[in-house]
Amino acid sequence: xxxxxxxxxxxxxxxxxxxxxxxxxxxxxxxxxxxxxxxxxxxxxxxxxxxxxxxxxxxxxxxxxxxxxxxxxxxxxxxxxxxxxxxxxxxxxxxxxxxxxxxxxxxxxxxxxxxxxxxxxxxxxxxxxxxxxxxxxxxxxxxxxxxxxxxxxxxxxxxxxxxxxxxxxxxxxxxxxxxxxxxxxxxxxxxxxxxxxxxxxxxxxxxxxxxxxxxxxxxxxxxxxxxxxxxxxxxxxxxxxxxxxxxxxxxxxxxxxxx
Length: 259
What we know:
By secondary structure, the protein is of the alpha/beta class. It has one domain (9-186, 223-250): 3-Layer(aba) Sandwich (Rossmann fold), CATH 3.40.50.720. It has 8 helices and 7 strands. It has helices at residues 18-29, 41-55, 69-78, 102-130, 151-171, 189-202, 206-215, 225-235, and strands spanning 9-12, 33-38, 59-63, 84-87, 133-138, 176-183, 247-250. Helix 1 (18-29) packs across helix 8. The longest helix is centred in the middle third of the chain and has 29 residues, at 102-130.
């Protein structure tokens, strides 16, 4: 399917690896020029080269923490008039809520709520003036279904979701959509890190842990970064202009609900 976004300009935050990288690759394959971002400058340069070689697209790396206002300025300098913004950022580490102090809570809210809002504030009016804009926020299934130890991440991402629920409707008539993708158990480094912790805590093998967790998912498997990226690209396409304010679950049916 032609997504109709060839020649569009995109910013994809935290796109050095995993789900962010998959979104950047899918947009590049659709013909977008993409600004990518990550903490590791050397790795980011290599990622940019690999995506450019694979897709032929223009890929611009901007290294640094996307929660840093100076890095946000650098992203916007590299792409002053983005048509597409994919908000993504690392979340706070898994921790019992009793152990989270005020400083950690503030940092988590900045990472997963304030930072995407700041980038939307900086880009949405330009999108509206040009008559086209696609904003996709990568949040988490934990916005809908609690995950033990991820309370801070869940709370901040749920706050972002609620904040944007009204905002998205103020710009829908100007060709701008704002949606959220909620990943479930995707086969990424973050999920594998959870497996390693489970191995240490239970003494079971990695294979046993993987099999047990996959068995909990109705689809019988973990999601892939590639299918996540393709979903993001579709939400950024001309075909998704009537979809806004939605939480798209990619969880293989793990969240058990009708609505």
